[in-house]
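Hi C.,

You asked whether I'd gotten around to modeling the 324-residue construct. I have! Everything is below, sequence then structure, no commentary in between.
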Amino acid sequence: MSKIFPNRQGVIAAAKSIAEILSPTPLLPVEIGGVRAHVKAENLQPIGAFKIRGGWWRLSNLSEEERAAGVVAVSSGNHAQGVAWAAKRLGIKATIVMPRNAPEVKLANTRALGAEVVLYERAPKEQGGEDRDEVAAKLIEEQGGLLVHAFGDPWVIEGQGSAGIEATQQLDAQLGTSPSRFIVCCGGGGLAAGLALGCPDSAVYVVEPEGWDMVGQAIATGEIVQAASDAPNTICDALQPTATKALNLDLLRTRAEPGVTVTDDEVRAAQRLAFAELRMVIEPGGAAALAAALSGKVPVDEGTVIMLTGGNADPQAFAETIRA
């Protein structure tokens, strides 16, 4: 089955489908600078991340022939688990291309869900690294299967946007209002694009690690921007795509606010606040949006929804962050 462009009707349909198999994640109040805002706790999904939404919606829309051929995905861990979870539930073979240095918890969880994991070296080619998309393409050539892209697939975008439909319903029930803005952890822009589609009256702020703001730069310039070969290290392993896709840029460039970046220290501060105030474990990439709000880089009000996108934290690294 093919779809060229996602749409709001698809986001609404995805939200209905997902509501039949998953409980809503909580929308919780949090005080930031004396202002009450809200966090959407996607870290509490069965796989610990929002990626289950896009994985389910994409795989549940496969044709019988596509299901029989299986799927291939590329991910540092959360999309991997989302696809693996949906594939297991639907009886579809899943092969996931993952970086060799992905957090062990994400590698173990993906394998535990029944997916085959193929490892690659995440480093610039001149340093012996491999192009993950080339690895995936070779696998598909050799064994067949459909590529389920982590952020550039129309169904995936619609599935991720279902979080916005859910948050809107929850905020309306609590306060009788709609989200004024979403603050979004951003890798390739799939969640941000889905929220922009699903919630057309809400502002969308994308938040990326310093040196990895490929989506923010693309929104600013109107062109796809590639990550620098000497891009700095970041603790946000989930937010390191080397570029967004044209589809995501088309959806975001007229809808998203200027992008912002956060430092590792700001992310760690957000992880500590989530643990202390919300009693939650948030992985670094899942805490980026909260970091932007805490640091004052994005304004907040009572209608602000801050996306906590993942909780698959490495136990040792998380313990060190909390102890600090």
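If it helps when you're writing up: The first strand starts at residue 27 and ends at 32.

Thanks,
B.
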